[in-house]
């Protein structure tokens, strides 16, 4: 995945919830909760979570400095730091194409929005208490 030029930010946050024994859906929901908290703390206004349409679902729709951002959240549980592949690697060409289709629907249903940016927030939950956040701003473009 190409980090589209705008950059990446990293951070750590307390996972806050027991993660052992969680199913994939619960891990995803916890990751989206952590990503929402992370984005708000960095000045993003969260407009919607789990925005859905006929083309699928956007995990988080937010805005910062007049830019609407469609965010894909990828979360993985690790026993130790760097225990597995980076979560952001799961955002493959098929997922990026789906987000482009979602963006077209979003723009059609929100005529006040002129453009969107595609971000990925990758969360690695390590153990019970620590989560590493990697925010890829402008993670991909319309023509990748």
UniProtKB/TrEMBL annotation:
It comes from the Bacteria. Belongs to the UPF0102 family. Gene3D superfamilies: 3.40.1350.10. Residues 1-27 are annotated as: Disordered. This is UPF0102 protein Olsu_0890. One of its GO terms (molecular function) is nucleic acid binding.
